[in-house]
Amino acid sequence: MEHFDVAIVGGGSAGLAALRQLSNLGKQAVLIEAGKTVGSKNISGGILYSKKLKNGKVYNVEDVYGKDFLSEAPIERLITKYILHATSKDKVFSIDLTRAHEYQANFGYSVLLNKLNSWFAKEAEESAEKQGGGIISGVHVQSLSWQHQQQQQQQNDRVIINTNELEEFEVKAIIAADGVNSEIAELTGIRHKFSPDELYQGVKVVVKLPEEIIEQRFQIGPNEGVAHLFAGDITMNHIGGGFVYTNRDTLSIGAVYHYDSLMENPTEPYVLVNTLLSNPMVREFIKDEVAIKEEIDKNLPKEEQLRTRFAVSKLIKTWEELRHTYYSPSGRAKLIENGKYKSSEEIKARLDFIHKELSSKYGTRFVTDYIELEYSAKLVPDGKRCRMKKPYYKNILFIGDAAGRGIFIGPRIEGLNVGIDDAVRAANAVARSIDRNNFSPNYMGEFYSQLVEDSPYTRDMKEIDKDYLKVFLDAAKDVPKDIVGSRYGMIFKLMSSGTFRGLAVGFANMLGYDRLLPLIESEETYVQVPIEIAEKLGSRVSSSYAPSIPTLAQRIARLKYDDDSVSHIKVLDPKSEFMKKMVILCPTKCYITENNKVMLQHEGCIECGTCAKDTEWRHPRGEKGINYQYG
Ligand SMILES: Cc1cc2nc3c(=O)[nH]c(=O)nc-3n(C[C@H](O)[C@H](O)[C@H](O)COP(=O)(O)OP(=O)(O)OC[C@H]3O[C@@H](n4cnc5c(N)ncnc54)[C@H](O)[C@@H]3O)c2cc1C
Ligand code: SF4
Predict the structure, then answer these.
(1) Which ranges of 440-588 does DSSP label H, i.e. alpha helix?
(2) What is the pLDDT of residues 260-273, one digit of tens each?
(3) CB 37 within 8 Å of CB 81
(4) In terms of pTM, does the model score above 0.85?
(5) Mutation test of ligand 2: which of 375, 605, 615, 624 has the most ligand atoms closer than 8 Å to its C-beta?
(6) Which of 31, 44, 142, 407 is the pocket-test mutation for ligand 1 (most atoms within 8 Å of CB)?
(7) Rounded distance between C-alpha atoms, residue 119 and residue 73, angstroms
(8) Residue 304 has pLDDT above 70, yes or no
(9) For the domain bounded by 2-66+112-191+388-462, which CATH number is listed?
(10) What residues are in contact with ligand 1 under a 6 Å CB criterion?
């Protein structure tokens, strides 16, 4: 049987950071990832933060990957504006939250996880190979067992890892980075499956938009980006909100809602994201010039019809690609450099020529619409409610989403940076254990648990930060206090005074976050108050086109899967109320009802985890299942 010092299960941003950190410390580790390639199973909003917290050190992405991270990693745009919009029909009231976004931050970059995690993997693997470790993708960890050592050596019980794809192998310690629906957590019984009150469901689409059009439309410079958040009627009465983030030449658009509120008022995830896409402000953000093929004359001979169809499709593709390249400074430079064109004007002239040819010769229409590239969904653990208090079991340490960690409160949406911080702490604990040859729970697990407890992020999951609250309230100072109603009037008044704020927050923290959360995270905060603000103070935003939002079937057809004939999910009680809700809440409609029984068609599953609570839920076998292209 093969032996390694450490195995990391899961190659998301957390697991990859653990591999890199262990390798930086000169330790051998292998990372096992179920996806065909690293990055193909991961999705995020997402903004990746680097933080400098006043209450102590956190480990940031650049601590793990080095100073060159910013110049070399495929990050999208540096977020320089952060704006919250309260919406009601066509009215929008906007609050500039840039200072809240900059609060204790070195930077926040928009990212797409397929690209970014692939880069992390390349960097981590390079370091790992020097220590005799590496990354094995396309392998799904199926079960674990313990190889007991002699009585006096019990602190060094080895774990035997069983996978669907490889011979079993043995390690001294495991870092479980296998995400929100951690099978390692389930196999060890260390924690319960997260329940709806501990989770959010996130659903997202990636929209194509040329680079310079993004810059013009969002009034940002090259490399700069903006984050727009939404609350109010776009939530369809759920607790949470929407987001639009600018990437280099795409937009990430999504809706993240508390799973509890989705259970209470079940609404299809695609409907929630469609509602956001239909908001007039968002419609204006996503619009672009789109070519629509004209029907081909059916009286033409069949061969001629085929030839024309092929010629039109090819020409439209050429036009789309050239246009996308033309609106990118680096794209134009590349075309000129490789001698295809002499100048930008020449590229523009070619574009205009194709445009004219398409419309005059083939009747192609050019309309205002938008282009969607990818639909995705995933559960997000609400760290305030479900972070593991003791994130270890025997010689296994849990990090990131697997440990239920993340800061999601109001406009603060942070899972990636928290997972990276956990990863460094776990790697440091494991490295110390390797040096002392002691992997016992008391030595390694307790030490890691303390390191995590000491992380300022943990404090942010437990307490209100009064300075952050001040920044937030200052941003909202133009909202008349009477609008926020009797419930919030008093809170606003108290919080607006420096002296009272300190006392009030102190008192609130004494009361405990748990008791405050229902007040903060209520329909009133996310739905009613924003609607009232938009109606009373908002400006009208108009948009003169209706986006052709793809149907769910079209969205699924665009996704890439490696189908597995064997289902990775088993329905336990097809008549339960929970399963009936899954018929609505599954983002790809994998559940249907027949004769009052809920049935699963696993082929369209995108592994979001929404149905995991009351099913026998596993990730698919290695390489199988969804392969996200953007993430
Ligand atoms: C819509 C949305 C918006 C978000 N926005 C933000 C944001 O703006 N900023 C932010 O910081 N965070 C955001 N988050 C949260 C953030 O994306 C997550 O916290 C983060 O991606 C989790 O990383 P992870 O490595 O812990 O887990 P994951 O990325 O889930 O990785 C787990 C990996 O483990 C693998 N795996 C699982 N089981 C096994 C097994 N048995 N064997 C082998 N491999 C296995 C999976 O294939 C997967 O690759 C958002 C999340 C969502 C869904
Ligand atoms: S079957 Fe379950 S895990 Fe798969 S997409 Fe539907 S809800 Fe998500």
Answers:
(1) 446-454, 456-462, 466-475, 485-496, 498-511, 513-520, 523, 529-537, 552-558, 577-585
(2) 999 999 999 999 99
(3) no
(4) yes
(5) 605
(6) 44
(7) 7
(8) yes
(9) 3.50.50.60
(10) 9-15, 32-35, 41-47, 140-141, 177-179, 183, 202, 204, 254, 256, 378, 380, 400-402, 406, 413-417, 419, 619
CB within 8 Å of 457: residues ≥ 6 apart: 53, 58, 405, 407, 414, 417, 418, 421
Cα 158 to Cα 318: distance, rounded to the nearest angstrom? 57
pLDDT digits (tens, 9 = 90+) for 150-209: 655 556 789 999 998 999 999 999 999 999 999 999 999 999 999 999 999 999 999 999
Q: Specify the residue for token string 């606003």.
A: 492
Q: For the segment 405-445, what is each residue's pLDDT rounded down to a tens digit?
A: 999 988 899 999 999 999 999 999 999 999 999 999 999 99
Query: Which ligand sits nearest to residue 203's alpha carbon?
Result: 1
pLDDT, averaged across the chain: 94
Q: Which CATH architecture has domain 559-626?
A: 2-Layer Sandwich (3.30)
Element (H, E) at 472: helix 466-475
Give the CA dihedral 112, 118, 122, 124, nearest 10 degrees. 70
Q: Could you tell me if the CB of 364 is within 6 A of ligand 2?
A: no
What confidence category does residue 476 fall into, taking pLDDT thresholds of 50, 70 and 90? confident
Q: Are 527 and 232 in contact (CB under 8 A)?
A: yes
Ligand 2 pocket test, pick from 203, 379, 607, 615 with the greatest ligand atom count within 8 Å of Cβ, gives 607
Please give the number of the atom of ligand 2 that sits closest to the Cα of 608: 8
Q: Which residue, 190, 155, 157, is CA-closest to 440?
A: 155
The better pLDDT of the pair 379, 487 is held by 379
Arithmetic mean of pLDDT, 597-610: 97
620 lines ligand 2 (CB under 6 A): no
Domain boundaries, the chain: 2-66+112-191+388-462, 77-110+197-287+370-381+525-549, 291-369, 466-521, 559-626
- The CATH topology of domain 77-110+197-287+370-381+525-549 is D-Amino Acid Oxidase; Chain A, domain 2 (3.30.9)
Burial of 11 (0-12, 13-18, 19+ CB in 10 A): buried
Taking CA atoms only, the protein residue closest to ligand 2 atom 2 is 611
